[in-house]
Amino acid sequence: MTARSLDTGAPTGERAAAPSPWKRIWQQDAPGYLFLLPWFIGFFGLTLGPMISSLYLSFNHFDLLTPPRWAGVDNYVRMFTNDPKFAASMRVTMFFVVFSVPLKLAFALGVALLLNRGMKGLTLYRSLFYLPSLLGASVAIAILWRQIFAADGLVNKFLSIFGIIGPSWISNPNYSLWTLIVLSIWQFGSPMIIFLAGLRQIPQDMYEAASLDGASKWRQFWKITLPLLTPVVFFNAIIQTIEAFKSFTPAFIISGGTGNPINSTLFYTLYLYQEAFGFFRMGYASALAWVLLALVALFTAFSFLTSKYWVHYDD
User: Fold this and answer.
1) Please, which pLDDT band fits residue 136 given cuts at 50, 70 and 90?
2) CA–centroid distance for 197 within its chain
3) Whole-model pTM?
């Protein structure tokens, strides 16, 4: 009788050679990598590749018509020392971020608290309130917003009922940026849905115990709701702040792509667009893009570093 091995059942001395590592990887992992191939193509071709090209161009003078000319850090030096429009766009963007994000989150949280009270038709209200988040960044809504706040727009017609003559909101540098802030607040649906999901996770017995101890609704909000909701607040703050830094379409449409009046709506992204596609200074625009990336990264890192002082998790 022929001796056979205990593990394979093959005759002794006739074991098949172990497959090579590359062959084993191909046999086991090839289907997974095949399914990931479209993502790899998109990541390397549409994300990583353009980012590397942009980083290279940020150190060059490039106008799309002639080959790039190496400039070193000239673009960055000019940006921080000899570009008043860069400073203006930074001021406008920071003002927009500082006021629009907290106001949007506060409004979204207020609506979420109302919807969390178990009113009838919750699904309908939730859909209606979420709709502006889907439409708010569109060109059509920006055009509509420009008509609403024009000198003869809907807002001034409403004010005229009470004998008030309103200004041309989008043509007055004192109010133009605030119209964009109001538009941003109107797009509260996305954080509202997230807040509502967070509110549903807070145990109701905590409110019942607080009520038995005589705590008012206001005190319950500050001592129970808000502390337990801080992880959701933190998430919404990060997402909405990044979106605010990237805001472009409303400012472009309402100002006609100029950032006027008097650069009061010159968002950072709008200025970047002007440099790239208005003056074809692609190298300088690439440097602007990388400064924006660094700014968002610094804000995000600072937020995570300070979150341990005010974000409360289960532990």
Assistant:
1) low
2) 19
3) 0.85
